[in-house]
Design brief:
It holds the Pfam family BTB. By secondary structure, this protein is an alpha+beta fold. It contains 14 helices and 13 strands. Among the domains are: 30-171, Apoptosis, Tumor Necrosis Factor Receptor Associated Protein 2, Chain A, CATH 2.60.210.10; 312-410, Serine Threonine Protein Phosphatase 5, Tetratricopeptide repeat (Alpha Horseshoe).
Length: 410
């Protein structure tokens, strides 16, 4: 029986040229930054310990490596005859050829912000970042500060020095093309939690605030606030968690507090108080900041601090300043002090009821305010003196209209 064969013709060459494939990748080099503040108390007792002897900070972690600050009160090298204080940052963990940039700052403790800074940050380095070859490698200055000058400087206060070190560890990675193009939506967790609060489903705790009752969920409150966590689940938790009375807080403030816990944002201030008054919004923000601090809601506290910074005004700045002092809001405090110290604002603020409250509740802040006022005065004198030198009357005796320079805060 015969077989049947199939004849297969050879493939014909393609008449079209192949499309070349194209790929790309990107190398990114950046720094992982961190800082550490090192206080040396009893500095005078450390003097005389000898050349090459040091005081070391605790180790701190930046970029996956441990670091430490070394201060040599009598200097690091014998050739300097103990005339200088030496300051170094050292790699304190195992590592080979660790590349990093640094900043060493001796802090001015007079409040004038005239710090002594040696920094790699914010400038282009001709030879690139510094390389530390092994554990114990150092970067710094043998002649950081002359000892005799340091003893009478503003860097030394109550026999204490304060040093801040910033480290930026260089990291590189290469990014290739993604194999997918799925657009990821933003998180909607707060939307779900917020709607849970609005629905009232599954609530298991009540709060009585200024005669009003608010329902909530224990687990949500405890997850968001360590204070609520201790109050509801801690060893000293309230015995009656079915209805907890909240003292010294108004109902709208507690309602806004719950809103933030569930929605992760502040409610509309004008809607909350039923007024478009800027003064009313500021008052509510003040109460909310105090409530956030009370329940250790740091993110909410920062939200309120930002709103109060935006709303600084003559009639409310004194009470806001007192609030910033009581709740350790340093940025808000600085904004308020600068605002009050301006010559065009100072007299008007001093005539408000809030300023009387500030004097009674925070007398120490007045000293800081005087320092700000004095600083503005110094700047004004310098500016006016400079203009007089620059715009001297011409030789022919004609008058010159000298404009007054408006002082700016440094």
């Amino acid at each position: 029986m015969g077989t049947i064969g199939f004849h297969k013709e050879p493939p014909k060459p393609s008449t079209s040229s192949p499309v070349p494939s194209s790929t790309s990748s990107t190398s990114r080099t950046d720094t992982v930054n961190g800082s550490h503040e090192f206080k040396i108390k009893g500095y005078s007792l450390a003097k005389g310990m000898g050349v090459g002897k040091y005081i070391a900070s605790d180790t701190f972690m930046v970029g996956g490596y441990e670091w430490a600050i070394y201060l040599y009160p009598d200097g690091k090298s014998a050739e300097d005859n103990a005339s200088y204080v030496s300051l170094f940052i050292a790699l304190a963990s195992e590592g080979t050829d660790v590349r990093a940039i640094f900043e060493l700052t001796l802090l001015d403790q007079s409040g004038n912000d005239r710090h002594k800074v040696h920094s790699h940050f914010g400038r282009i380095l001709e030879s690139g970042p510094y390389t530390l070859k092994y554990r114990g490698s150092m970067w710094g200055y043998k002649r950081f500060f002359k000892r005799t000058l340091l003893d009478t400087s503003d860097y030394l206060k109550d026999d204490c020095l304060s040093i801040r070190c910033c480290v930026g560890v260089v990291k590189s990675h290469t990014e290739g093309p993604k194999l997918y193009s799925i657009s990821l939506p933003p998180s909607d967790l707060s939307q779900h939690l917020g709607k849970l609060l609005e629905s009232g489903k599954g609530t298991d705790v009540k709060f009585e605030v200024d005669g009003e009752i608010f329902d909530a969920h224990k687990l949500v409150l405890a997850a968001r606030s360590p204070v609520f966590g201790a109050q509801l689940f801690g060893p000293l938790k309230d015995q009656n968690t079915q209805c907890i009375r909240v003292e010294d807080m108004e109902a709208p403030v507690f309602k806004a507090l719950l809103h933030f816990i569930y929605w992760d944002n502040l409610p509309d201030m004008h809607e909350l108080v039923g007024s478009t008054s800027k003064w009313a919004s500021t008052l509510v923000a003040q109460h909310l900041l105090a409530a956030a601090d009370r329940y250790a809601l740091e993110r909410m506290r920062l939200f309120c601090e930002a709103k109060l910074c935006e709303g600084v005004a003559i009639n409310t700045v004194a009470t806001t300043l007192a609030l910033a002092e009581h709740h350790n809001c340093l940025h808000l405090k600085a904004i308020c002090l600068k605002f009050v110290a301006l010559p065009e604002n100072l007299k008007a603020v001093m005539q408000t009821d809030g300023f009387e409250y500030l004097k009674e509740s925070c007398p120490g802040v007045l000293t800081e305010l005087l320092q700000y006022v004095a600083r503005i005065g110094e700047h004004s004198v310098i500016a006016c003196g400079y203009r007089r030198r620059k715009e001297a009357p011409p030789l022919d005796g004609t008058d010159v209209n000298v404009r007054r320079v408006k002082p700016r805060l440094q």
